[in-house]
Amino acid sequence: MSFFAILCALLIEQVRPLGPHNPVYGGVLAWTRWTSRNFDAGKPHHGWIAWGLAVFVPTLLALGVHWLLVLTLGLPFAVLWSIAVLYMTLGFRQFSHHFTDIRDALDEGDEPLARSLLAHWQGVDAAELPRSEIVRHVIEHSVIAAHRHVFGVLAWFSVLAAIGLGPAGAVFYRMSEFVARYWAHKNGAAVQPSSVAVQDAAERAWHAVDWLPARITALGFAVVGSFEEAIDCWRNDARRFPNENDGVILAATSGAVNVRLGGGSLSPIPVTDPLPRAQAGESPTAGRRLDSGSTPGREPEPGHLRSVVGLVWRSVVMWMVLLALLTLARLLG
What we know:
With 333 residues, the chain is an all-alpha fold. It contains 13 helices and two strands. The longest helix is centred in the middle third of the chain and has 32 residues. Pathway: Cofactor biosynthesis; adenosylcobalamin biosynthesis.
């Protein structure tokens, strides 16, 4: 049933995407704030308690509803629940409008508008970026967003659903990503900033949770792109990026479409209210990168944006075909 749940969720999300200011994101934000406000006392074990509550309570709630539906109403209703959860956690439309708007601005030659849209999306100062750097940053942010909104969710959902845990994997992955991002951002808040302990716990947990999905995503990009170049770039250039998991994905993307990534920096724009961006599932700190060298490849140009779109969609099709084949084998077996 995992294949059908994922397919339905993706189709529904394409027709009617989830809005940025919906009750689900509002509830997640309120829950995350409550756990840090009541359990973040600054000690390492308090950080892990806050993280465990913030992540595992929603995960167990999703699992409990799944099994309640299985035992009372039957599997079809449990599948509908999985579709609903995937609709809230999975999807391109949660970030793709930013990519599309910037790409259209570049196609029309309106670089000031493209810089403004990039600055608004990532909360960074992009006023001095040349055209190639705008494209590079858009590629990097979009690929990471595609991983966190689509491929990472698919990986955790598919694995845990296969052992009878329903949509728990999708909730676990997205909550792990959200609390790490939100608490890192809240560190700069004027009122009740997050402690180092809770940030460290969330960051460590997120690195472990995303370790395997990041490599699955990179492998998918290599298979549907230029395989040898992607693997070579993965092996030799992933360390150029400060985040290990993101570096693996970006290096594989660089090799798969032959584009130079990394090696730049963006200055963050002070943000007084993180609520809109946090609710929209975007990263207020995603643009903060130290200059660490770039990967080999061609200078980024607008044509690479279309190549990246094709790379991502081919990877989605590949994993969906694989899931369909596994589902068919299980049904026939």
